[in-house]
Amino acid sequence: MMIIRGNKYRPECGKHRQSGLLLLLLLMLLPLVHGCQQEREVDDSPERDGGKVELRFAPQILAFEPGDKLRSGEAEEPEVETLLLMVFEDHIQAGDRTTLLYISEATREVTGTFSAELYTRSQPCIIHAVANYEMDQATKNSLIGKDEREVVARLQGAGHYFWQRFTLGRIKAQSNIQSIGLLRSFAKVTLVNNSESTFTDASIKLYHSADRGTVAPFDPQSGQFAEGILTVAPDAAFSQAGDYATTHYPFETRNSDSNPLFVILKGNFNGSVNYYKIDLSQKKINAGGDEEITKLHLQRNYQYRIVLKGIKRPGAATEEEAAGGLAINSGVLDYALDAFPAIYSADGTRSLSVEQTVFHVGAHEAFITPRFSYKESGVVKNESVQIKVVEEDPTKPLIRQPINEDYKTSGVLNVTINAMEEGSATRQARIILEVTKDGERMVRSILIVQYASFSLEPVLINGFDPAIIDANLPAGQRAEISFVIPDDYPAHLYPIPVEIATSTLTPDGVTLPLKVVRREIDSHTSVNEIVYTYTADKPGTHTVPFKTNKKDTQEAVTVSAPNFLKAVTGYNIGRFKGQLTYSFGQQNNQVLPYRVPELISTSHGRISMIDGTTEGQYDIYLPIPLLESTEPTNEMVRVTARLIYAESNNTQLTRLFTADVPVTEFRDLYQANKEDPAPKDIHLTHTSTMMQARFIGLHHIDGQGVKETILIPKDAEVSASLEGREVPVRVWEDGMLEIDLPIVEHIEKKMLEMRLRIPTVTDNSGLIVEEYSVRIPVADVVNHQIEIKRTKVTMYGNIIWEGLPLVRKIRCYFPPDYINPAKTYEVGTANRYEIELPADLSDKARIQFERGNVFWHPTRINTSLNELRKDATLVFTQV
């Protein structure tokens, strides 16, 4: 058997700092591992199965804040008191199931480590480490032979548990201490009173939190254990969180209208006890200028910090009065509510954070952009993070690889999700982020779960699709939008944010959060669109009341939600169906069905794919006035679709396919049968190719090979040519360029030339112009960041002579020797200068400017390009 010896580790308890330091010294022997799904590399030398070995383990728990310590009056966080190791046969050896082999109970020892005996094993095994969970021998015996989902996923109780799942390649005798990064089963809610001069004896009580929690976070739909999945104990009851205190450690709880989470703040204001109600929610101003409120769920391993800044007026006289009323507003209480996960190393100097740990995607091809940040002593060092993808089924990968390495500068993973094969079930993959420094290892994981897409259909307006609303009636006519959430939608994915995109309808009698987004018509045209969000918390038909906001309107309305196919309905608009196909043209005229619903648009009305599995079947909605008109017209309805694909060398390109359909063809079909026009098939042809890539401006490389670079800014002047032919190019975000390429054979072998000009206006009318260029094959452009070398730096600015006679020349001296001037430059009559600096000059390198033609008491200025970017004025002062 195996022995785990682990230290009691409380990152928030100041009085245990010495034992914490001892633990850190011990952990230098083995990588420190944090994250939900951990993998261990062990010695693969042969050893007979069945013998007993003794191994030692040190539990580690990420801190909520750097240098976490107890504040005055704050309750200590629960500790690791006991530890169970549940050893399962790995699913690789046991098909789709794991099998519990035995449970070993660890012993805590005075050395600060835990010890437990395990049997030697030559094959991989899965171990669940469970802290503070009591289990008698009879219960342990009854679980032997069961799957981990039957055993661990069902563990729940009122204790404060810690948990981790990890894999051992084999079990054998080890002299080193194994570290286990444990995950809390509970959250932390803290009050920080920064208004003690006017509000004393402050404390809080938490309402409607669960009275018990699960040991591990578990997704029943995918059968996966993963950090970030909200897992409420099935037997939980919801009530107040005990007595008033400045700190509570509650279990995971979903915040909903039927079970709202809030705290009651109690304290002494103006000599009497007052009570205030604070909702567990955050407010922000959306793009439309309106206030948007987001309910916060209680999540394990998260801290919720209420910072009290000031009391403006008395609150309620009793707790009951406060709890039964509305939450306080800014006119009564000045406070801030923050929510953040535990992400810090034990010494507080390093942090590895992930913005979102679980992504749910539909069956069709999709794109997600997980964000992360790794810092050392507050400095971002994302380049230190290593990325690994672990697929559930490597033969049918969920994630398209490789993932672009521009994440090293941006902290954003650009991830393409492959479409699910028809008839496939739920599948998943993990992205592992890992940092190792000084023998210590930090790990975070991102779980991506792909479901067969659900449908919102039928989506109707006033019970019809499309609906007819009398164009002669004034604004304010009823336009109820309804859709259906199917009964088999996974319960743990509620609530569902359903987005309704409409510009001509307004919510009627209900308040819905809104935002303004840009909707792309084609690669060069986009429009503003208003999107309302309705929250669905149960299956069945949902009806959202809307009304028209002006007379004589028509529109195709889009209804969408995560894991659902986008649906379109409309009013006063004609609906056409048909098949959408495409071909590449030239040497390949094969006609194929188009199947990617997110990447299709139209110049008129709306277009969408009917569902994700039908062979290219589409809906298009066109305005009734366009179809009813009898006026002659040459107008076209342009349909644009995109296909993102990778060449054999992993060059990723986006091909644009278009079709121009005469309005008269739709009009004739509509006039023949307005209720159900005959199908209209549309064939798309390849018209252009787009390529996106991130370019990095390379300034300087020092003697140790350290590069000095910048991301290309949005305002850069950029041009491109392919084999000498100019091609359109745009900068979408810092460093990311989109290039339109012509249709040519073997485009990946063609040479692309990029030219950039970045002007920087400084204080006092200065200007620095940096020019860059690169010439590379198209195949080298994407799937990794491209360095574009700085070729010229020109600087313009003013010269001020303080107490010195004017001269018309200045000299410049550059590293490394500063002996011979690089060049002598003329000074204009208006005391303006123009200087060309070395293109490979470091931004930090010291530059010396000297008055020219003066051989006695020369005056020099010592500065750098970084400093000159702020103010390019050269001030010469008499020494």
Write a compact overview of the structure shown.
This protein is mainly beta and 879 residues long.
Describe the structure.
By secondary structure, this protein is mostly beta strands. Helix content is 6%, strand content 46%. β65 and β66 form a beta hairpin.
Sum up the overall morphology in one term: globular
**CATH topology (level 3) name of the largest domain:** Immunoglobulin-like
What is the first-to-last residue Cα distance? 80 Å
Oligomer: single chain
Number of strands: 67
Structural class: mainly beta
Topology of this protein?
Elements: H1 17-27, E1 37-40, E2 52-60, E3 83-89, E4 99-105, E5 107-108, E6 114-119, E7 125-131, H2 137-143, H3 148-151, E8 156-157, E9 162-168, E10 177-181, E11 183-184, E12 188-193, E13 199-207, E14 209-210, E15 213-214, E16 218-219, E17 224-225, E18 238-239, E19 247-248, E20 262-269, E21 272-279, E22 281-285, E23 291-295, E24 302-311, H4 319-324, E25 333-341, E26 350-354, E27 358-361, E28 366-368, E29 372-376, E30 379-380, E31 386-391, E32 399-400, H5 407-410, E33 415-417, E34 427-437, E35 440-450, E36 460-461, E37 481-485, E38 496-501, E39 505-507, E40 514-522, E41 525-536, E42 540-544, E43 546-548, E44 555-560, E45 567-571, E46 573-583, E47 592-593, E48 600-602, E49 606-609, E50 617-623, H6 624-628, E51 636-646, E52 652-662, H7 663-672, E53 682-701, E54 707-711, E55 717-722, E56 725-727, E57 729-733, E58 736-741, E59 751-762, E60 766-777, E61 786-802, E62 809-813, E63 823-826, E64 832-837, E65 846-851, E66 860-864, H8 865-868, E67 874-877
Parallel strand pairs: 1-9, 2-10, 12-24, 27-35, 46-53, 53-61, 61-67
Antiparallel strand pairs: 2-6, 3-4, 3-7, 5-6, 7-9, 8-15, 9-11, 12-19, 13-20, 14-18, 16-17, 20-21, 22-23, 24-25, 26-29, 28-33, 29-30, 31-34, 32-33, 34-35, 36-37, 37-42, 38-41, 38-44, 39-43, 40-41, 44-45, 46-47, 46-50, 48-51, 49-50, 51-52, 52-53, 53-54, 53-58, 55-56, 55-59, 57-58, 59-60, 60-61, ...
